[in-house]
Amino acid sequence: MSSSAAKVKFLSALLVLVFFSTGCMRLKGNTVYEYVPSLPKSTVPVTVTVEQFEDLRTDWERKQTKDVEPVATKVTRKIYDDFKESSLFEEVFAGQDKPSDILVKGRIYQFYWKNRFKWYVYVPYLNLIVLFGVPAGQFKGEVKLTVDLISKKDGSLISSYEEYSLKEDTYSGYRSFWGMEAGTETSEAFRVTVENIKQRIIEDKEKIIAALK
Questions:
Q1: What is the dihedral of CA 54, 59, 109, 101, to 10 degrees?
Q2: CB-based contact 187:33 (threshold 8 Å)
Q3: Distance, CA of 71 to CA of 212 (rounded, Å)
Q4: 123: DSSP letter
Q5: What distances in angstroms separate CA 69 from CA 7, 53, 103, 112, 174, one per listed residue?
Q6: DSSP category for residue 36
Q7: Nearest to 161 by CA among 150, 172, 169
Q8: Is the dihedral of CA 116, 122, 123, 124 positive or negative?
Q9: Three-state SS for 146?
Q10: Fold (topology level) of 3-211
């Protein structure tokens, strides 16, 4: 075997190893929950208490996040931190027995991260096409949340917001697989979903204030 042929064989085998290792990537740490909160254009002058969100995801999605559980607790905590740090409301509390105007209740319908590579990345020699920009695979994160604002005075629903975000990224031989961090797509989808909910709350500012009179 010539030196050139040996190098090609080695490179192809190395790619199989790289893609196999990357295909086994699992969520770990808090990457899916980490993002920088956006600052709203104004503050709703009411006090709120954020209660634990309800996890209504499918069993399949729960399996995708089994290494970063409990999702409901961590999603709730991040939304509490986001609302507080961004000054969305006058005051933000956590728990149930807090003196506030509004209860914030939520439901998690989708929250997961998944990676999938093309079949040809595991085929020797054929996988070399990814070095020329052919997509090698895709990473995907989806988040769908509902947030309800409930009056603590009479238990009535003031408003409800449901938002969804899908973030995908395609990888090829031009991208560095070793530098990738599992879950970044879900983190971005989470950020966008919460940002959209916050924007809608700001748009309903006068409605929320009026409901408490």
A1: 0
A2: yes
A3: 32
A4: S
A5: 44, 14, 24, 11, 33
A6: P
A7: 150
A8: positive
A9: strand
A10: Double Stranded RNA Binding Domain (3.30.160)
Cα Rg, the chain, nearest whole Å: 22
Q: CA-CA distance, 49 to 79, in Å (whole number)?
A: 11
Helices (H) and strands (E) in the chain, counts: 5, 6
Contact indicator for 193, 107 with CB cutoff of 8 Å: no
Q: Token digits for 156?
A: 């009535």
Q: What is the pLDDT along the chain (213 residues), one digit of tens a residue?
A: 566 655 545 444 555 545 545 544 566 778 899 998 888 778 999 999 999 999 999 999 999 899 899 999 999 999 999 999 999 999 999 976 678 999 999 999 999 998 877 656 666 766 666 666 667 777 899 999 999 999 999 999 999 999 999 998 877 655 545 455 778 899 999 999 999 999 999 999 999 999 998
Query: Residues for the chain: how many in total?
Result: 213
3-class DSSP assignment, residue 165 = strand
